Amino acid sequence: MRSCCTFQALGLEMRMCSVVLGGLLLNTQSAITITATSARNQHRLNMSFTVEERGNPNTLSYRLFFKNADGKYVSPFHDIPMYADESQNIFHLVVEVPRWTNSKMEIATKDPLNPIKQDVKKGNLRYVANVFPHKGYIWNYGAIPQTWEDPGHKDGDTGCCGDNDPIDVCEIGTKVCSRGEVIKVKVLGVLAMIDEGETDWKVMAINVEDPEAKDLNDIGDIQRLRPGYLEATVDWFRRYKVPDGKPENQFAFNGEFKDKDFAIETIKSTHGFWKALISEKTNAGGLNCKNTCVSAGDSPFYCSTDEAKAVVGGTSPYGTEDHIPCSVDKWFYYEKK
Ligand SMILES: [Mg+2]
Predict the structure, then answer these.
(1) For residues 139 and 174, is the Cβ–Cβ distance under 8 A?
(2) Which residues have their alpha-adjacent CB atom under 5 A from ion ligand 1?
(3) Where are the domains of the chain?
(4) CA 153 to ligand 1 center in whole angstroms
(5) 33 Cα: distance to centroid of ligand 1 (angstroms)
(6) Cα dist from 176 to 20, 60, 223, 279, 310, whole Å
(7) What's the CATH superfamily of 2-312?
(8) 148 CA distance to ligand 1 centroid (A)?
(9) 232 CA distance to ligand 1 middle (Å)
(10) pLDDT tens track of the chain, all 337 residues?
(11) What are the boundaries of the signal sequence (predicted)?
(12) What is the Å distance from ligand 1's center to 9 Cα?
């Protein structure tokens, strides 16, 4: 058991290094190739959670399922606790997209056990465009578990309803995280993006294990210690869909970030909406609320270990990967309005 864990830890180190290397070289395709040559589809990503890959990477069949420390399958949407440490306001973050990569990977909110899979548009895998001077996502990007932006709730500040997803996070630490990694973050602020009429909060946060995390405690500290990062963040979100023929995104509060306290209250309100969802007090719509850890009394969507195993067993086994198309590395220029 001990040597197995050591091996898995070593495997993670190799995987992370390859992604870092890919980031520096701005060559995500080679990074992913190196990762896949490990020929393993299970990775221990921290003390508490592991991920298991299914299907073929970079194809429609790819899925990333989560297990807890007991080896039981869990939903990253419903079963991973929102708080890592409630007394310190430290939250869990499920990393969906490692920094510098383009694959629009996300928690599949409508699939049983909510594995991470790549978003699909018109039958094609979705990659975000590189709008100059950005390359892929410029943060580790992911979601806080046990939160939900309720599409039936009109936000008092933005005047728009929620986007039906868990709340999004931009993690600004120096480490490039792995897809599916569950990290602990300190919240620093929030941006109120309006995406085609829906409220889509973007929480700014930093990995508590970052060497400089102790110096970053509120939104002003990002401005002071990471000059340009907040402006780049607004620019990224404003323009990233324009190459796909969409309009620029809009922002509430004139595109200004709100502070840490506002951000924490926003996250707490989305946790309240999630609680209503998981206890069937709100209509779930098309969302899949199957879970294995929310206590049965609190959720009518509780499912057994065997049922969860059958869900994973019903997906394609892990197999060889496809290449990411070269066109994903293209750079787009256009004049700012
Ligand atoms: Mg969102």
Answers:
(1) no
(2) 163, 165, 168, 200
(3) 2-312
(4) 14
(5) 29
(6) 6, 25, 21, 36, 33
(7) Inorganic pyrophosphatase (3.90.80.10)
(8) 9
(9) 18
(10) 333 333 333 333 333 333 333 333 333 332 332 233 333 566 554 558 999 999 999 999 999 999 999 999 999 999 999 999 999 999 999 999 999 999 999 999 999 999 999 999 999 999 999 999 999 999 999 999 999 999 999 999 999 999 999 999 999 999 999 999 999 999 999 999 999 999 999 999 999 999 999 999 999 999 999 999 999 999 999 999 999 999 999 999 999 999 999 999 999 999 999 999 999 999 888 999 999 998 767 788 999 999 999 999 999 999 999 999 999 999 999 765 5
(11) 1-22
(12) 31
What pTM was estimated for this model as a whole? 0.86
CA dihedral 178, 89, 70, 107 (to 10 degrees): -50
> What is the distance in A from the centroid of ligand 1 to the CA of 195?
9
- Strand 105-107 and strand 42-44: the pairing is unpaired
Contact 55, 316 (CB under 8 A): yes
Token pair of 67 as six digits: 């297990």
